[in-house]
Amino acid sequence: AQKITQTQPGMFVQEKEAVTLDCTYDTSDPSYGLFWYKQPSSGEMIFLIYQGSYDQQNATEGRYSLNFQKARKSANLVISASQLGDSAMYFCAMRDTGGGADGLTFGKGTHLIIQP
Amino acid sequence: DGGITQSPKYLFRKEGQNVTLSCEQNLNHDAMYWYRQDPGQGLRLIYYSQIVNDFQKGDIAEGYSVSREKKESFPLTVTSAQKNPTAFYLCASSFYTGAIYFGEGSWLTVV
């Protein structure tokens, strides 16, 4: 069974600072993908970034980067130069990519608040 | 526009009623999913379908039913057997690998 742990229920960060959101995972599958999603107060789930278990380099998408440490089973999200619009819930998730498409396992999320 | 469309956005159900949430995608995705989110919680998988006319139970399938008669459509029925249906419901779709994309969600309230 897969498990995602996000240990930070909430974070307050000053605007323009960098933010690191923690995520650790547990799986026995050798092939898997790790995802981060942003959920603003409107409720929609916005895909941010993806990291495959066999990817050699850490994923980056604009201001988002994923600090992937496979041996430690961690997949932290780093947001550079935070903005007020980054305030939202952030969810780490994973899926088995060995075959088929059987959905994501989610963590409980981190509520990020950016302060001016 | 390409995307995933859920309807209705808000739905009220009386005790003992079945209700159906619609989900349509025009992304040519193979797989579709239904998730439930309770306040302050992460998402939990209800059902998923990898191919037309086939679907699998997720972690919390009891009290729910689905169908996949077309690649583009994956409706979810919340039956009267679901004792605590008030929640936010999210439909999603994907290819067999890579990112999973979500619709805007449907709020279901029991009155």
In terms of structural class, how would the helical and strand content of chain B be classed? mainly beta
Proportion of strand residues of chain B: over 45%
Give the fraction of residues assigned to helices of chain B. Answer: under 10%
Indicate the radius of gyration of chain A in whole angstroms: 14 Å
Report on the biggest sheet of chain B: 7 strands, mixed
Secondary structure: number of strands of chain B? 11
- Which protein chains are joined by the largest interface, and how many residues does each one contribute? A-B, 25 and 29 residues
Tell me what you see in this structure.
The complex is a heterodimer of chains A (116) and B (111). In chain A, the strands form three sheets. In chain A, strands 2, 5, 6, 10, 11 and 12 form a six-stranded mixed beta sheet that branches. In chain A, strand 8 (64-69) and strand 9 form a beta hairpin. The model of chain A has no long low-confidence stretch (mean pLDDT 93). Chain A has no helices and twelve strands. With 116 residues, chain A is mainly beta. The termini of chain A are far apart. By secondary structure, chain B is mostly beta strands. Chain B has no helices and eleven strands. The mean pLDDT of chain B is 92. The chains are: A mainly beta (116), B mainly beta (111).
